[in-house]
Amino acid sequence: MTKVNREEVMALINSKPDGQRVKNFCAEKGITETFYYYWRNKLNKSKSDSVSAGFIPVRIKDISQNGHLLASIDLPGKAVIHVYDATVIAALMHIL
Predict the structure, then answer these.
(1) pTM (predicted TM-score)
(2) Of all helices (H) and strands (E), which one includes residue 11?
(3) Count of other CB atoms within 10 angstroms of residue 15
(4) What burial class does residue 44 get, using C-beta atoms within 10 Å of its C-beta: 0-12 exposed, 13-18 middle, 19+ buried?
C-alpha cells in the first residue's frame, strides 16, 4: 500500500466542482467513492477540530453599575455569561 500525501489528497478532494456527482468525479480521477468519502470526512473533521481549538468571538453587551449586574457577555451558541464582580470585569477586559 502506498503512503498518501495529505496535502495532495486535500487538493484532490477540494478540486471536485460544485454540482458534479461524486460518482463521475471519482471515475474521472481514478479513485473509489469510498476513498473520496473517507478522506472528505477525515479532512472535514480536522477542520472542525482546528476551529474549536481557536479563539471565539465574544461581545460585551452592557457594562453598568445599575443593580448588581456589571456585564453580560454573549458567546457563540447563545450562551451568556453574567458578571457581578468588578475584579472579574477587570480581568476579562485585560484578557480580551
Answers:
(1) 0.47
(2) helix 6-14
(3) 10
(4) exposed
Q: On the CB side of 86, how many CA atoms lie within 13 Å of its CA?
A: 5
Q: How far is CA 77 from CA 21, 55, 58, 62, 89, in A?
A: 33, 14, 11, 19, 22
What does the block give as the cell for 69? Answer: 449586574
Cell of 81: 455569561
pLDDT in tens, 42-52: 888 776 555 45
Domain locations in the chain as residue ranges: 6-51, 55-95
What the block records as the C-alpha cell of 50 is 482546528
